[in-house]
């Protein structure tokens, strides 16, 4: 299977689908970037189903302009982000995956409020990834104790968090196949 994948990658790379290759000492490609034209075309086809937003604070968040088609959302919290913006979570009812990444400079209560509202509105969420390092495991516990409506959640990434075990009441309703 890996050989077939390498063959397909080679074909796509030879036709300039990828650029800016980085190689290791053995001349193997370890990183590359999708060509800008290919990226723009894929974004056009997906019609904003996949969205990546950076929040730095001070500016009006583009989270408020979501159109309801977003299925996969990555929110990167910049150094200057003081709080998580208020968002109409009703526009995120079709959200399948959420990645929150960034820095620990924000007010945790605003993030907790957003996630609790999202969990009550969005029943489709299947993947939840906290790349964001919260100050304590208590915050993660507080968020997850209000996630009982996430019956479709299959992937929960708490990697890098200070959570060693989840409380029993959380484990009873989580149907995750993968937890990190």
TrEMBL record:
Pfam families referenced in this protein's UniProt entry, alphabetically: WHD_DRP (PF23559)
UniProt domain Disease resistance protein winged helix: residue ranges: 1-42
Source taxon at top rank: Eukaryota
UniProt keywords, alphabetically: Repeat
One GO biological process term: defense response to other organism
Species of the source: Citrus x changshan-huyou
Keyword Repeat: yes
Keyword Nucleus: no
Residues that span the membrane, as ranges: none
Protein name: Disease resistance protein winged helix domain-containing protein
Family matches, as InterPro entries: Disease_R_plants, LRR_dom_sf, WHD_DRP
């Amino acid at each position: 299977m890996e050989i077939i994948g390498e063959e397909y990658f080679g074909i796509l790379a030879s036709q300039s689908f990828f650029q800016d290759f980085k190689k290791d000492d053995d001349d193997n490609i370890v990183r590359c970037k999708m060509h800008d034209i290919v990226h723009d075309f894929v974004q056009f086809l997906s019609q904003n189903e996949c969205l990546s937003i950076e929040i730095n604070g001070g500016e009006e968040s583009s989270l408020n302009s979501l159109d309801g088609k977003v299925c996969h959302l990555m929110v990167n919290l910049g150094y200057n982000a003081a709080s998580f913006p208020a968002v109409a979570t009703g526009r995120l009812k079709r959200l399948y995956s959420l990645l929150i990444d960034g820095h620990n400079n924000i007010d945790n209560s605003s993030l907790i409020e957003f996630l609790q509202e999202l969990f009550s509105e969005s029943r489709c969420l299947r993947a939840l990834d906290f790349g964001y390092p919260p100050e304590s495991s208590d915050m993660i516990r507080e968020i997850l104790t209000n996630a009982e409506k996430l019956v479709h959640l299959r992937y929960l990434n708490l990697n890098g968090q200070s959570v060693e075990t989840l409380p029993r009441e959380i484990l009873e309703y989580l149907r995750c196949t993968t937890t990190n």
